[in-house]
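Give me C-alpha cells for this 333-residue protein.
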Amino acid sequence: MDPVTQGVLGAVVTQSQVKPKQLAQAACIGAMAGMAPDLDVLIRSATDPLLAIEFHRHFTHSLFFIPFGALICSLVLYPLLGKRWQLSFKSVYLWSFIGYATHALLDACTSYGTQLFWPFSSQRFAWDTISVVDPAFTLPVLILCFLACKRQSKTFIYASIAWMAIYMSIGHLQHDRAKALGEQLAQQRGHEVLRLEVKPSFGNLAVWKVIYETPTHFYVDAVKPGLSQSRTWTGDKVVKLDLNQHFPWLDQDSRQAHDIARFSWFSGDYVAVDPLNELQIVDIRYSLLPQDIKPIWGIKLSPQAATDQHVQYYTSREDSRQALGTLIEMIFE
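Here you go.
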C-alpha cells in the first residue's frame, strides 16, 4: 500500500491500545513504525536494476522480522520522541511493534506479493482484495485518526477500525464475484484454464482485472460485479513467454537469462513479450487500464549484451491521465 495508508493504519491500531491522553503520541510512533518496512526501497544497485524489486517486500516485511524491525524503530524513535514525551523505552518498543506489525499484513491484501514467511519460504502472498492506492479506504481512516487525537476520544478509533473491516469485507466479496465472472468468460470461450486471478483496478473495488492462463496464451479482461447486473469489457490476449521461441539467440547461461528468471519469479510467471517491442518482457498483471495488456513495467534485452551484462528495467506511464479518465468512466458506467 501507499505510505499514507501504511502510516495511518499503524497509527490507528496502536491508538487502540493506549489511554485517550496518549492517542497523539501513539499515533506518531505507530505511524512511523507502520511505514518503516518500506525503507527497503533504499536497497538498490547501480549495476543490477532488478535488485530493488527483488528486495521490496522481502525480509523487512517478514512476520519473523517484526520484533527486530520494531527494535530498530525504537532505537531511533526513543531518543527523538520518547524521552521528550517522558515515555519509557518499553512503551516506545510496544507501540513500534504494533505499528510495524500492521504493515506486511496490509501489503498482503494487495496484488503485488509479500514474503510473509521469509526466510523459511520465499512465497509471495497476494490476497488481491484492495488496490495499492485506494482513497475510499484511506481518507475516512485518516480523518477519524485526526479526530481521535484532537478530541482525545477512542470512539473515533473504533469507528475507523470498523470502517476498515467493512471495506476489506467488501473487497473480499467483490473478489469472489469478479473471479466467478472471469471463470464464466473463460468457459464461454471454451478455454482450458490453467490458472485465473482477479485484481482490483487502481483506486477502487468496482472494476476488476481478470487474468487467466491457457496452454498458449494469457487473456485479460475487465469486469464490474453488480448487485443485479454485471458489466464486462473484453480485453486483449498475448502469447506466453517461450525463451526458445522468442529469444533463440539468448545464451541460457548469461546474466540476461538469469535476470529473466528473476523477473518471472517477481511477476508470478505472468510474463510475455511486449506486443509493441519484441525485445521487451512485460509483467501483464499490471496495466493502466484493467482490460489492456499494455504494461507499466518490464525488462528490455539486448542481443549485443555481454554475457555478464544485466537486462534493463523500465517503467511506462505515459498515458496515465487519459487512462485514469477512462477508468473513472468505467467505474460509474
